[in-house]
Amino acid sequence: MEDRELLQMALKAKATAYAPYSRFEVGAALVTDRGKVYTGVNVENASLGATNCAERTAVFKAVSDGERKIAAIAVATDGDAIPYPCGICRQVLAEFGDAGMRIICGSSSGKFTVHTLGELLPHAFKLR
Ligand code: THU
Description:
The protein is of the alpha+beta class.
């Protein structure tokens, strides 16, 4: 799966984001080591702390479907700014991938960056 293709899927997924409070709609798309693709969106809540980011939605869909290893994930928003995964999402990604996981961050403007999880979360906390 090409990084650009994954980013396009993240942009498309964004259409169903549930973000009535921040109006900041985010889409994510990941591919597992077995080549399966899952998308996710941010799901906000009136109790703001109960909000789930797009990346974690995609990860939880994949894991609940039996997948255990993520090869790459793309995250996308509208506008000019490049969205990077929050700290909680980085930690969740570290549970299901290694330091070489590609993280593609982009926007509808067409700009995007590619980093590894090891770059975005060095020395991740792991128990196994
Ligand atoms: N959000 C994501 O979905 N992913 C990120 O990487 C950062 C933030 C969401 C959470 C919330 O719904 C909105 O963006 C504003 O923080």
